[in-house]
Write a structure and sequence with these properties.
The complex is a heterotrimer of chains A (441), B (314) and C (290). By secondary structure, chain A is of the alpha+beta class. Chain A contains six helices and 26 strands. Chain A folds into three domains: 206 residues, no CATH class; 163 residues, no CATH class; 29 residues. In chain A, strands 1, 2, 4, 5, 6, 9, 10, 11 and 12 form a nine-stranded antiparallel sheet that branches. In chain A, strands 15, 16, 18, 19, 22, 23 and 24 form a seven-stranded antiparallel sheet that branches. A five-stranded mixed sheet of chain A has the order 3-14-13-7-8. In chain A, strand 15 and strand 16 form a beta hairpin. Chain B is of the alpha/beta class and 314 residues long. Helices cover 36% and strands 28% of the residues of chain B. Chain B has twelve helices and 14 strands. In chain B, strands 6-7-8-3-9-10 form a six-stranded mixed sheet, with helices on both faces. In chain B, helix 3 crosses helix 4 and helix 8 packs across helix 11. Chain C is mostly helical and 290 residues long. In chain C, helix 7 packs across helix 8. The chains are: A alpha+beta (441), B alpha/beta (314), C mainly alpha (290). Chains in contact: A-B, A-C, B-C. At the A-C interface, strand 15, strand 16, strand 17, strand 18 and strand 19 of A face helix 2, strand 1 and helix 5 of C.
Chain lengths: 441, 314, 290
């Protein structure tokens, strides 16, 4: 026993040694990648050990060959770059080839990421060339204007506080001239528009295929780009049953069926989605990782791009239009007296004040007797493709059949067995000679 | 009907059959004899294609077996030494299955006729697991005959049967042969072979040691003929005279009869009779002894074997 | 094929099928498959009743927000898949005894007295297994049609693809079982061999996954060797195990990939043909007699 304890101790000590060993940094040229993932840009690197990277087709992607220090980080099983230690961007003409044919020669461009609906509010856009400078300038000027407004607001606040002090000296004096009572100045809003600083890089926008990229004359910058498209794109839904609003089920595919049991109220939130290869998609997000994408070569998954809030939902029962439902915001009101412990009510800013809506979507009430379907129609009344879904109401009595049906084969077997047993011969024959080898199946 | 030429089967350590030349003619009942391990079953298995010969040729119905496998096999019926049955089947189902296998026309009618012939029709719907050995053997014979084969191969068909069953099998063989079918029968019940077969072959240690019509085989196995002579007034002088004759090899008195062993190169009966009467004796009766197949078989496969082979009688 | 041979195949396959249908084994296997399917469907219905809602996709679908969630495929597909697995295991067991049992019992010798050769015998045994699986599938189809009607669960295209795939799986399983059977003279040995291979087929992928999940990166020493060995074994098993052919097809169905589906069908057919040829070769080497 003691022997094993010593052995265990040695193993543990060795493990500490392994963990304590600092990763070795190696200088090399990596390709710094800002890749579009369908909704935003994500940063990863392509070191020498991972010379093939993946990117979405028909989208602007930014690449920057850079000399830096690279090391393998064993805990997360990935290669990392220490740009603080060394960060030398490599200049030159980027040659893009497909097979042996050069299809583009690119120079570095200026670019920014702009956020027209705010950094947290919507999807970013990449803006290149002169427009990049304009975007950055626009953001800077809006910020400058904001600061001017803040200065003014601060001055107004000072004036307001002085006026307020005067007011409190003799409030009675303001009787009959209430409009002269000092009003607190409104704090200026931070500008919604946001743009990053102008940066430089090669902007790659390619059709699906496999390409070779290399800065002219610098073979260590050579990389392979696998450019792919989403397998499908369409409308997906988050579907919330009233009794479990926190656990929405998703439906991405036209062929999917929504099953309900009995009378149900559903809240349906549509979104635009794309179906992409899991391996390639994970490699967009983290290329130089041994774990990312593993086992996903054949798998596809749907990714939400943005929610659709400018359409209405048509609900059909047995092929007949039941209702056309409007998109609304909903608020979950906790109520002890309610059966579920809460009520889902339409969100009203006047009632709910500064509280945010709990979720958005279409409210659909189904009586559970029939086959239903729903689909999205846009503002022009046109059906949005791939948006139709079937809804089936399952019959709980089927559980009884599920229990009974497996007994049928046993019953058949027993009946056959009884029949075959009745054919067994009794020793009625006249020939009673000794039995020899007999076989049975 | 069956012809083999220099048929040989070697196993890793033994030679089961060596240079076997067999010829079975159409319409005959051919007995195939030999002690245990002589190579009879191996030969039959080679004839059926279940064992591959090491060398030699097999022709059945005048055609090589390998090239006409299905054609030949569909025209052969076999009853084997061992009884292997699908015991979960009834007799009717079992025969029906083999009827399908051989594509028998008017199958049901034939099955009924065969079951009636072997007196098992009333038990046709009983599973074979309950059948006795004798009943199974009858079903095996019915199976072998259901497709009206031209050649019937029977390997120990009376094995384990009671005398009644043996007779039934003998009758069936006779009936089938009367219809013009050729029968090759391997058996250790020599009396049965003797009663049934036209020609026999005797195999020993993988070699054919005797082959031909039954009587000739029996005769060729004897070096000397035996005369049994009944004599009135038998004297010592008569005995001495006979003993001194060059063609007499042995002379024994037994119950007032003399048993003489004489050369087979001639018929010495008249010479013997004359010598007895010249010496005062009266020949009351004289007959040449007839040997049974069993005696011939024992002789061939036992002590005289080497001599017979040397003499080339085999 | 030789007409006489096809007659022999038909007769022998018919006899064997009758024998299978007159025994309890097949009905127990069917019932076991249906019990597993029932448990799954019972759970689905219970889940929908409890949660009020479920979405049954026809392919593996995930969203960015539910990336770890494996959704249930179309409701009848999973239960059918498990029922098919159980039916196929029965077929493998039955096939693994098919040749050795006849040799062991001597009935093979009697068959070969007649117009039967090794090809006819092996093909008949194979055909019988496929027909027996067809009977199993008929029960399954009846069961799922009734339950679909009663429950209102949809029968999607994946269900019917799975039915086609399962027939080919049965081919793989039967040919594999027969290959084992052709190598042995005794039923007992065949069954032991079957169990050994089933255990190998089930444990190697588990071991492989264990090493890949728990030691994914740069491991050294014994662990590295063990990971490499299990990796090689897993590769080998992925080509010799009949289960892996169903797995390939199932993945293709779940991915809605017609190319992968057709590829899996072709691989299954090739696998079956190779093993059947191997069975005939070994059968000829072993001979007919006990």
């Amino acid at each position: 026993m003691r022997k094993y304890a010593y052995l265990l101790l040695v193993v543990i000590l060795l493990s500490f040694g392994a963990l304590a060993a600092a990763p070795e940094k190696v200088e090399q040229v990596v390709t710094n990648l800002l890749l579009f993932d369908g909704s935003q840009w994500t940063n990863t690197i392509s070191p020498q050990e991972y010379p093939t990277f993946y990117m979405l087709a028909d989208a602007d992607n930014v690449i920057n060959p850079t000399r830096t220090m690279v090391y393998f980080w064993p805990i997360t099983q990935e290669y990392m770059a220490d740009f603080y230690d060394m960060n030398e961007e490599i200049e030159g003409t980027l040659i893009v080839s497909k097979g042996n044919k050069v299809i583009a020669e690119l120079e570095k461009q200026d670019y920014v990421f702009s956020y027209p609906q705010g950094y947290y509010g919507g999807r970013p856009e990449i803006v290149c060339g002169d427009d990049a400078h304009k975007s950055a300038e626009k953001y800077r000027s809006e910020v400058d204007a904001y600061y001017q407004r803040v200065i003014k607001w601060q001055q107004a606040m000072t004036d307001y506080e002085i006026a307020l002090d005067e007011f409190w000296v003799n409030p009675e004096a303001y009787k009959g001239r209430e409009s002269e009572i000092p009003q607190e100045p409104k704090q200026p809003d931070y500008p919604v528009y946001y743009a990053t600083e102008v940066q430089r890089g090669y902007i790659l926008n390619l059709e699906p295929g496999t390409y070779t990229i290399e800065i002219d004359g610098l073979p260590e910058t050579k990389r392979t780009a696998v450019v792919f498209s989403p397998r499908r794109q369409g409308i997906g839904y988050d579907i919330r049953p009233e009794q479990q609003w926190t656990v929405p089920r998703t439906s991405n595919d036209l062929s999917e069926t929504v099953y309900i049991s009995g009378k149900q109220t559903l809240y349906i939130t549509p979104y635009n989605g794309i179906e992409v290869n899991r391996y390639m998609y994970e490699k967009i997000e983290k290329l130089p990782s041994e774990i990312s994408g593993r086992g996903g070569e054949l798998l596809y998954f749907w990714m939400v791009l943005d929610y659709v809030n400018d359409a209405s939902l048509e609900v059909y029962k047995d092929g007949v239009l039941l209702s056309t439902v409007a998109f609304k915001q909903w608020y979950v009101e906790q109520t002890a007296s309610a059966a579920l412990g809460y009520n889902i009510i339409e969100f009203d800013p006047k009632v709910q004040g500064e509280r945010a809506p709990s979720f958005e979507g279409f409210k659909v009430e189904l009586d559970g007797a029939g086959r239903y379907s729903f689909r999205l129609v846009n503002e022009n009344g046109e059906v949005i493709s791939e948006s139709e879904r079937l809804v089936r109401s399952i019959d709980p009595r089927s559980r009884f059949f599920a229990l009974v049906l497996p007994l049928i084969p046993i019953l058949v077997g027993v009946l056959i067995w009884i029949w075959r047993s009745s054919l067994s011969a009794s020793d009625k024959g006249t020939d009673k000679t000794s039995k020899v080898t007999t076989v049975s199946r | 009907m069956i012809k083999t030429h220099k048929l040989t089967k070697e196993f890793s350590t033994t030679v089961a059959v060596r240079d076997l030349d067999l010829s079975v003619d159409k319409g005959e009942i051919y007995g195939f004899l030999g002690p245990n391990g002589a190579g009879k079953t191996t030969t039959i298995m080679m004839l059926l294609g279940l064992e591959k010969p090491t060398s030699g040729l097999i022709e059945i119905f005048g055609k090589p077996l390998e090239k006409n496998y299905f054609e030949i096999k569909r025209n052969v019926g076999v009853v084997s030494e061992n009884q292997y049955f699908y015991d979960d089947m009834t007799a009717w189902e079992y025969l029906n299955f083999f009827g399908r296998l051989y594509e028998v026309e008017e199958r049901e009618k034939k099955i009924k006729a065969f079951l009636e012939r072997v007196k098992l029709y009333h038990r046709r719907n009983e599973r074979l697991s309950g059948y006795s050995h004798g009943m199974k053997q009858k079903i095996a014979i019915a199976r072998a005959l259901i497709h009206d084969p031209d050649l019937i191969i029977l390997d120990e068909p009376q094995n384990g049967l009671d005398p009644y069953g043996i007779r039934e099998v003998r009758d069936i063989i006779g009936e089938e042969n009367a219809k013009g079918r050729t029968v090759l029968i391997s058996s250790h019940i020599l009396s049965e072979i003797e009663q049934t077969c036209n020609r026999v072959a005797i195999l020993n240690k993988g070699k054919l040691v005797a082959e031909g019509p039954l009587d000739i085989v029996k005769m060729t196995t004897q070096q000397h003929a035996t005369l049994i002579v009944e004599i009135e007034n038998l004297t010592e002088e008569i005995k001495e005279k006979l003993t001194t004759q060059s063609y007499v090899k042995d002379c024994v008195e037994e119950n007032e009869k003399l048993i003489l062993s004489v050369d087979r190169d001639n018929d010495y009966r008249s010479q013997v009779a004359r010598l007895i009467s010249e010496n005062g004796g009266l020949v009351v009766g004289m007959q040449a002894k007839s040997y049974s197949l069993e005696e011939a078989f024992m002789k061939i496969t036992d002590s005289n074997l080497e001599t017979i082979i040397k003499e080339g009688t085999a | 094929m030789n007409n006489y041979r096809s007659v022999a195949i038909k007769a022998m396959a018919g006899r064997d099928l009758r024998s299978t249908l007159f025994s309890m084994g097949i009905y127990i296997a069917i019932a076991l498959g249906l019990i597993v399917a029932s448990i799954m469907l019972y759970t689905y219905v219970g889940g929908i009743m409890e949660n009020g809602l479920d979405v049954m996709p026809s392919s593996e679908t995930e969203t960015r927000y539910y990336s770890e969630r494996q959704q249930t495929p179309e409701p009848m597909l999973g239960p059918l898949q498990w029922a098919v697995y159980i039916g196929a295991v029965y077929i493998t067991l039955s096939a693994s005894m098919s040749i050795s049992r006849e040799r062991d019992q001597g009935t093979m010798e009697v068959l070969f007295y007649g117009p039967v050769d090794s090809i006819a015998f092996v093909v008949a045994k194979f055909l019988e297994q496929i027909l027996a699986f067809g009977v199993i599938l008929l029960f399954y189809i009846g069961y799922f049609l009734i339950l679909s009607k009663v429950s209102n669960f949809a029968l999607g295209i994946g269900f019917f693809k799975m039915l086609i795939l399962s027939l080919l799986l049965a081919g793989c399983m039967a040919s594999f079982g027969m290959f084992l059977s052709s190598m042995t003279r005794r039923v007992k040995t065949s069954v032991i061999l079957f169990l050994v291979f089933i255990i190998i087929f089930l444990t190697v992928p588990v071991l492989h996954s264990y090493f890949m999940v728990n030691f994914p990166g740069n491991v050294k020493g014994v662990l590295s060797v063990a990971r490499q060995v299990t990796s090689y074994l897993n590769f080998l098993v992925s080509w010799i195990s009949p289960f892996s052919y169903l797995q390939r097809g199932t993945v293709a169905i779940l991915l809605s990939s017609n190319i992968e589906f057709i590829k899996s069908l072709v691989f299954s057919l090739l696998y079956t043909a190779v093993l059947l040829a191997g069975s005939i070769f070994i059968f000829n080497k072993k001979g007919v007699r006990r």
